[in-house]
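Closing statement on the tryptophan sub-project.
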Amino acid sequence: MVKDEKIVLTGDRPTGKLHLGHFVGSIRNRVKLQDEADKSFYMVADIQALTDNAQNPEKVRANVLEVALDNLACGLDPKKTIMFIQSEIPEIAELTVLFLNLVTLARLKRNPTVKSEMKDKGYGEDVPAGFLTYPVSQAADILFAESNLIPVGEDQLPVIEQVNEIVDDFNRFYGETFKRVKHLVGDIPRLIGTDGNSKMGKSLNNGIYLSDSYDEISKKVMNMYTDPNHIHVEDKGKVEGNIVFTYLDIFDENKEEVLELKKQYEKGGLGDVVIKKRLIEVLEKLIKPIREKRKEFEKHPEEVMKILEDGTKKAREEAKKTMAKVKKAIKIDYF
Ligand code: TRP
């Protein structure tokens, strides 16, 4: 790595289509950074997806294409970003094994991201070892390419912190080899779900997807909670905690009009349907071009797979270079 190079890397687990939470948390930054970075990587994290889907490989396989499509549709450009598949880079697995010696079981169990995901999935002590250790494999995802800038959603910050602990330990035990990495979280670090849950999640069934049709968007917005005490149009309404206004604050570009609507809503005389219809149009304006671009790519899945194949070849070259350095540092470079 050349000094002060900006190397961006990020990825998605292929477990489902991507939603607005991914878009505001990370995808928007990825698309922007590919123009600023010296190198930019995007990884389909199929091995990580398998850590809690071991019995469901078909799901992971099918979603490799879906997450690649979502990212291409949002403007990730294979000319600027090396797009690749994690399982095709065996050096990531090799690095993971070596990094596993640098973390303790107690530390893994303390990681807040993993802890909360384990709770959501109802794991307890019966967590697959691969899942508990995914932050270690994520360190390998990041460091194989010597990347140093990682666009992620806010939920991933404890993982990035753990990556840096691995960097520090590695350098201390084996000599200065890796640089600490920085995260970059989107302007909206965490998007609430359409049900008001603090997080929009694939498994929580509360997401608006980047591939959703106009009808799907409408249905989801129409079902959003507003203010339960706002029954008649004349009633005074509450803006805080009102999901529709939370979304308008984030996605509606006309801040002045939103402010005006809020005032009206609080005074009474503004119906829920009016603000919901507005939100539907705002979201449609954002999602329509993404959906349409996605449809174009969907016509040629073989071209998308070719993009991933070409990207994987390039990523593999980086991986080999880093692996040679690592083996030397750990003194396991025998022949
Ligand atoms: N853990 C990330 C997520 O769930 C996906 C991911 C895997 C990732 N490897 C990565 C993100 C490396 C950034 C860098 O969203």
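The beta strands are 7-12, 39-44, 82-85, 149-151, 182-184. With this model delivered, the sub-project is considered complete and its resources will be redirected to Aim 3.
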